[in-house]
Amino acid sequence: MRVALTGATGFLGLRLLHELLRRHPSVTVLARGEPDRVRERITRGLGRFAPGLTGLADRVQVVSARITEPGLAMPKSDYQELADSLDAIWHCAGNTTLDGDLATLREVNVEGTRYVLDLAGAGRRTPVVFHVSTAFVAGARRTGVVYEDELTDAYGFEGTYERSKFEAEQLVHAWARATGRPVVIFRPSVLTTGLPPHPDLPEHPLLNITRNLSGIARSQLGPGRTPDVLLPRTNRFRILGRPDGQLNLMPVEFAAAVMARLADLPPPDGVETYHVVHGQETPVVVFGRLLEQLSGVRIAVVLELPDPSPYESVLSLVRGVFCYLRHHRRYDDSRVRARLGPAGVPEHISLEYLLSGLPPRTEAAPVDLAPHR
Description:
alpha/beta
């Protein structure tokens, strides 16, 4: 059985590769760059959390491919040989910039998906497509229950990333209807880890948040100004949100294991979608405390923002992160539980757990807005 994977060097993709190598003698990795360097990067990363895997030089076949180009920018004969040999394609590659340029996001998340689907339909076999989406295709719906079969833009979107992943799912459904091919869609929530950071490991997604905080601070500082001038007199900053809000955070290792177990099942007729989520929501206040620890600033999540400081005014314009602090929804995962039964309990998402997977404040947020007082 030949299995291909895109996005193998990413935060989730590397963990998925680990799970696939536990099940298959070899995996074909489709990646940009020189194959030997990609394989070396993968080997170093797997060595940090899966040292028992051996023979990776023979078990991981790296094929140079660009998912943003027709035919994956491969020689036609190589492309056809690959297509004819595949039994399963895992599409995990993506641009995860939360509020990036929509055209740039579509190039990877939508057109990249299109070209991976073209590969799935180009060969003699009928490979199962495993498409990694996101629970946040639910968009700007902030309350209630989101079900696995729902796919609607009726609520709009919090950012461009969500829209691009929604459009990719639409494309997957249309392709499956047109071809009659089986597709499994995975919708993970916010992925995190308790594994300490290391240069050989993919970067933790939550680091982007602290970079946003520091970047905004830098943009507001002029010559001779110190960071504390951006803060209100209370020496804290306020973020618009729901103090009783909740987010779904999921350990990436557990998410990859759940996806792999679901992929072990017989392929569906048509499209089947799974919410890969934690059974317990994480309170927004825990996320606020995490930002406090990483930024060195006291934070309050508030429903209203009267008399904002300069920094708070700028933060209120940042849609890509802080809009999620207004969420109080949950994700139904009945289909996952029906297929797998009791699948164990993922680690509780505590502040200590979140901090263990991130670098210290001096590394994560080089510009301190103010010390605790």
